Amino acid sequence: MKLFVDCKKAGHLCDKGQYEDASFFEKLNVRFHNLICKHCSDYSERNAKLTKLLKDPKCRQMPEECKKRIREELERELAKNKTEQKP
Amino acid sequence: MANHQLDPQKWVDKYSDYLYNYTIVKVNDKEVAEDIISETFLAGLKSMKNFKGEASERTWLISILKRKIIDYYRKINSNKGKAEVRMNYSSDEETGDWLEERVADPFDRTAEDDLENTELGVAIYACLNKLPEKQAAIFKKKTIEGQDTETICKEFDITPSNLWVIIHRARTALASCLEENWL
């Protein structure tokens, strides 16, 4: 295992880090790389900001059971329309 | 002008979260928002033949949704009897039908206009709608629903490295879109 990685690898590990998919050592790789690379350090900052926004409670999601209910309603209506078209 | 198409089978997957964020800020009640969105989709289905293809599918659905939200406020307003909410011009010089002028013409507003001064949730889902369909679907599953890599790879028949490339592209595009339109 290397302590220093290239930009491509650092970017990938930074993405993984946003999902808790990166190991401790991989996170260390990103940190070390960012010390010597302005570009990747900016990328990491931006990436972390995006993660924070996506976890904000103001970014809401319609509950899955509600989506399911509406999907079924739409399916029923669509099926009805089809049978009406060819009597 | 681009000729947009309607595809009701994909409405829930593509737009329900966007419409949900949009509605909940305006009605401040989860169940009411769910009902209004369900009504919006059904109304959309009924008036599909009136769709001219001039606006995007999402803009068109939003225009229906706006009317449904107004209907909701009218209804609770009439239930309350005399507790009337007056929406009016800010000065006496302006006259006309306030509601018609301010609300009824959604087609000349683009989705981009709607993004300004908007809520975070609305902005995020509006930006997600700009991504290629498959990219957005994979990104949502991984990031918002928190599914693990293996499950998603199986569902879409891709390798983990495919997945990370897609995630990377989606994140970059999303960050730029939010920087432009929200931050």
From TrEMBL, chain A:
Name of the protein: Glycine dehydrogenase
The species this protein belongs to is Leeuwenhoekiella polynyae
Automatic annotation (TrEMBL), chain B:
Q: What Gene Ontology terms describe what this protein does at the molecular function level? A: DNA binding; sigma factor activity
**One GO biological process term:** DNA-templated transcription initiation
- Gene3D superfamilies found in the cross-reference section: 1.10.1740.10, Winged helix-like DNA-binding domain superfamily/Winged helix DNA-binding domain
Q: Which SUPFAM superfamilies match?
A: Sigma2 domain of RNA polymerase sigma factors, Sigma3 and sigma4 domains of RNA polymerase sigma factors
- Residue ranges occupied by any RNA polymerase sigma-70 region domain in the UniProt entry: 12-75
Q: Which UniProt keywords apply?
A: DNA-binding, Sigma factor, Transcription, Transcription regulation
Question: Domain RNA polymerase sigma factor 70 region 4 type: where?
Answer: 123-174
Q: Where is the signal peptide?
A: none
Instruction: Write down the InterPro entries for this protein, in alphabetical order.
Output: RNA_pol_sigma-70-like (IPR039425), RNA_pol_sigma-70_dom (IPR014284), RNA_pol_sigma70_r2 (IPR007627), RNA_pol_sigma70_r4_t2 (IPR013249), RNA_pol_sigma_r2 (IPR013325), RNA_pol_sigma_r3/r4-like (IPR013324), WH-like_DNA-bd_sf (IPR036388)
Q: Does the keyword DNA-binding apply?
A: yes
Q: Which family does it belong to?
A: Belongs to the sigma-70 factor family. ECF subfamily.
Q: Which NCBIfam families match?
A: sigma70-ECF
According to UniProt, the name of this protein is RNA polymerase sigma-70 factor (ECF subfamily)
Organism field: Leeuwenhoekiella polynyae
The taxonomic lineage of its organism, from the top, reads: Bacteria, Pseudomonadati, Bacteroidota, Flavobacteriia, Flavobacteriales
